[in-house]
Design brief:
Elements lengths: L31 E8 L8 E9 L17 H14 L1 E7 L1 H9 L5 H16 L3 E5 L5 H10 L7 E5 L2 H4 L1 H25 L10 H10 L12 H17 L1
Length: about 240
């Protein structure tokens, strides 16, 4: 058995801010840092994925090699996905096309606010000291205010920035988990419905799939997207031309 360490009480207890990390023997509090990012905001096919990765500040070196998922090859993302899940606490939320459409058709929500609700769900469950958000809105202060109103713990430190996945390891890790899950979801859709392409409206394979299947499989499409509504409008116009 090693020597016993004597607690250092040189700092009066009433002067300690326990929301900050202290390197003072037994008084030390390790900050829990959560990064949140998404994958699949733009596609007309498939879900939006929102992921959160939380790790102790002292353990951030475990995320070595992690970077924004868009900068990584597929096989590297898969390898890092397993590593991140092993070394951190995480939560992944899948938002269906139906839920996205309902949000966009409502008076209370838009895509940004819907994403804020999913981010709040992750923060409320994982309970970090600091949450770093890759902001989907052009107005970061307004988005931060909206998000904070959804939190159970109003004292959580929020860092809401554009390109946070490029600047913070936990956000980069979250982007990897989100991207890998999005790719898995699209693979599942392709096995069931055929070659959809990546699901983005500008992709030629996706364009062809939408044109040929928008009525057959409405459950996989975001029906509020212009790409989908264009085909609806064309059909409605043809119906009017008959009369």
């Amino acid at each position: 058995m090693g020597p016993t360490r004597t607690p250092d009480f040189s700092i009066p207890l009433w002067k300690i801010d326990f929301n900050k990390p202290y390197k003072v023997n037994c008084l030390r509090k390790i900050m829990k840092i959560l990064g949140i990012d998404e994958a699949g905001r733009g596609p007309v096919i498939g879900p939006l994925i929102v992921a959160g990765v939380m790790i102790d500040k002292d353990d951030e070196d475990k995320l070595e090699g992690v970077k924004d998922s868009k900068l990584l090859k597929h096989d590297v993302r898969i390898e890092l996905d397993a590593k991140i899940k092993r070394d951190s606490k995480f939560k992944i939320i899948e938002v269906s096309p139906k839920e996205i459409d309902e949000a966009l058709l409502s008076e209370e929500l838009n895509l940004n606010w819907l994403e804020a609700h999913k981010q709040a769900e992750i923060i409320n469950e994982l309970k970090p000291d600091r949450a770093i958000i890759d902001c989907p809105s052009t107005n970061c202060p307004a988005f931060e205010e909206y998000l904070r109103d959804l939190l159970e713990d109003k004292n959580v430190e929020l860092v809401v920035e554009h390109k946070a996945d490029m600047n913070y390891p936990t956000c980069a890790a979250a982007s990897i988990l989100a991207k890998v899950r999005r790719e898995e979801a699209m693979d599942e859709i392709k096995k069931k419905y055929g070659n959809t392409g990546p699901g983005y409206p500008a992709n030629p394979i996706t364009k062809k799939f939408v044109a040929e299947n928008w009525e057959k499989y409405p459950e996989i499409f975001r029906q509020t997207w212009a790409t989908f509504k264009k085909h609806q409008k064309m059909k409605d116009q043809k119906s009017l031309d008959v009369f």
